[in-house]
Amino acid sequence: MSVVDVIQVSKRYDKVAALDDVSLTFGDGEFFGLLGPSGSGKTTLLRSIAGFVEPDTGDIRFDGKAVRDTPVHRREIGMVFQNYALFPHMTVFDNIAFGLSVRGAATADIRERVMAMLGLVRLSGLEERRPRQLSGGQQQRVALARALVTKPRVLLLDEPLGALDKRLRQQMQIELKQIQREVGITTIFVTHDQEEALTLSDRIAIFNEGRVVQVGAPHAVYERPLTAFAASFLGDANFFSGVVASGQRGLGAVQMADGAVIYTRDSLPELGASVTVAVRPEKLAFATGAASASADAPSNRLTGVVTQAVYSGSSISYRVDAGTEVLVFAQNRTAQPIEPGTPILLEWDPIHSVVVGS
Amino acid sequence: MRGIGGLLCKGYLCLVLVFLYLPIAVMMAMAFNRSALYELPMQFDTKWFVALAQNEKLLQASLNSVLIAIANTIIATALGTMAALAFHRHRFRGRTLLQLLLFPPITIPWLIIGTSMLVLFFWIGIGRGLHAILLGHVALSLPYVIVVVGARLKSFGETLEEAAATLGASPWQTFWRVSLPVMAPGIVAAALFAFAVSFDQFQISRFLAPPGVSTLPVVIYSAIRQGYTPEINAISTVIIVVSMGLMLLVARFYRFGGER
Fold first, then answer.
1. Which of A52, A103, A132 sits opposite B162 (nearest CB)?
2. Which of A78, A343, B170, B216 has the fewest CB within 10 Å, making it most exposed?
3. What does the pLDDT read at residue A30?
């Protein structure tokens, strides 16, 4: 069952389309990530759902009812802003109580629910503090508690962890996900951090230039990107362009300009058509001399020379000159990086060759 | 080296304090001196305060000044706060131009503004009088209020009001429970400015005051020309004590500019 439906929504600012015919459905209890570069429309969509932006055309529905004429304060939403927007003149308690208090809830009821929320976000005992006396992570939790206490139908998060440092951000990601599961609230969040989107989301929508490029579960979007943009925005990718040399079902071949052949399990267009294939850098392995591929399970193979090795502890990233420049992420198993200048053989399973455009 | 530097800094601080406060201190002391000619040694006397209490002209002018300043503070603060909110919330045609237009009145000499107001007020039939003085003062105070309240609003961004809306607060509730309390220190500071601009105002008041009606700065100026009496010291002492008390009270409530 869907909680929020976005139906063919468009919004233009002057001549620029901030949203171009966007349709999305947000299911009950779903944690949904809107991912894209700045100016791609993800924030405009979030603000349209909140009611701060009025779409030019299209409909936004909450539980099936159009909300075009419902002002922000009657939409029953919860929102966490990037800078938290905590009320500086109120204590933590009064900040969290605000939504209940403007609805005219009874004092005893407010107290009980605020205290329960403080427990949920692990801030019990800090209710008399002012926002400026809290750390960034604590302010973030107050903002979350304040947004959740009114039991909204949908929770909107605008780059919620953007202002935190990396370690704290990773810790808050886990907590945010736990709290969301516990409360079971439909959550839509905007981020430009691909790792955050993959970690938190049940589903992801990738935005580019006001359009939704791809929607799906994190692994589906990451492993099978539909376009070169999706492949390069969500993670890193190597692109190989060539023409279809064999369209055999289950194993096609793409011949590149230098004669090398890339095999793929994806279906290909007609023979001779030009296509682009994407391969994730961590799917490539260095073959160790002996042929590991048999005739009925052919493997992709490229020869090249290591041009650069960047050591980062648990992993090492290599740049390899194999006709085109190829990026390879390798686990640091041997504690011995391959020196630049070393000739090597790259190998990967055709299932990891993803056709991203023809 | 460090010792000499420190000594210089202290000397500098002393000079600042001397030039700022010594004239005021001397004037306050002379208000209690029996001699009208600043003769020393000082002989303590309150006779100038007694004379002041009987000086109808000076008292009436003081009353005018206080009434105009209070009316000006209320009107200018209310109008200026509304204008600052409009600048803060809305992006409209001519917004930047209007904001730029706030500054010339602060920099144009008051003498020139006073003259031009006199000409205009006569031309459109407003004429002279306390109402004209009040009108002039409000016009002059508005830019200060808008700038001071606007600076306060700017330091909080727009998201506080948006956050209140997402939490279910109507625009009216948002104003009373979020915008106004957040603006309060700025509004108080702006009100003090408006009061000071009006209470200090000499040029405009002088031009717009009809014969026989006057404000305190105008009367003090005329008195100095006609022959200075220590009654002026006495009234000045009263004003300084009251305004400093007011200032300290406000500073105590809002750690000035400190709260963020």
1. A52
2. A343
3. 94
Q: Which residues of B touch A147 (CB under 8 A)?
A: 166-167
> Which residues of chain A, if any, have pLDDT below 50?
293, 295
Is B240 part of any domain? yes
The CA-to-CA distance between both ends of chain A, in Å, stands at 36
B:110-169 residues touching chain A, CB 8 A cutoff: 156-157, 159-160, 162-169
- Position A52: which residue type? F
Residues of chain B contacting A14 with CB distance shorter than 8 Å = none
Q: Assess A81–B contact: CB distance below 8 Å, yes or no.
A: yes
Residue A229: predicted pLDDT: 92
Residue-range definition of the domain harbouring residue B107: 48-253
CA atoms of A239 and A229, how far apart (whole Å): 11
ipTM of the complex: 0.83
Q: Tell me which chain B residue has its CA closest to the CA of residue A150.
A: B167
CB contact under 8 A, B168 and A76: yes
Distance CA A77, CA A62 (A): 10
| Residues A227, A248 within the same domain | no
Q: Which pLDDT belongs to residue A201?
A: 93
Q: A133 in contact with B at a CB cutoff of 8 Å? A: no
Same domain membership, residue A278 and residue A138: no
> In terms of domains, do A159 and A301 share one?
no
Kindly list the averaged pLDDT for each block of 10 residues, start to end, along chain B of length 260: 81 90 85 76 80 82 89 95 88 86 84 87 83 89 91 82 94 92 88 86 83 82 77 84 80 55
Q: Enumerate the residues of chain A whose CB falls inside 8 A of the CB of residue B181.
A: 89
Structural domain count of chain B: 1
CATH number for the domain harbouring residue B161: 1.10.3720.10
Residue B166 falls within a domain, yes or no?
yes
Contacts of A77 in chain B (CB under 8 A): 166
At residue B41, the pLDDT reads 76
